[in-house]
Amino acid sequence: MKETVANLINDEIKKLNLFVDDAFISEEEGKKIFNIVLDSEEIIDLNRITDASRIINKIMDKHEEILGDTDELDIYSKTKGE
Asked: Which CATH number fits the domain that encloses residue 25?
């Protein structure tokens, strides 16, 4: 799953110095959540996550089959040091 998502997204978010670190489905409070974890060689501020989310949402809208029957798409950054 990570490789598929990275292939779709990495070229579009590299201008923000971001890349896909992981992509997985989790379940929280009865909801299936499609998680995309972003990382960078530098500290990621909220503005970059917001800009990346806009780009990623447009891409994932065009590739809804990847999201399957998930209820939500959650895009966030990896915590430095992990």
From this structure: 3.30.300.70
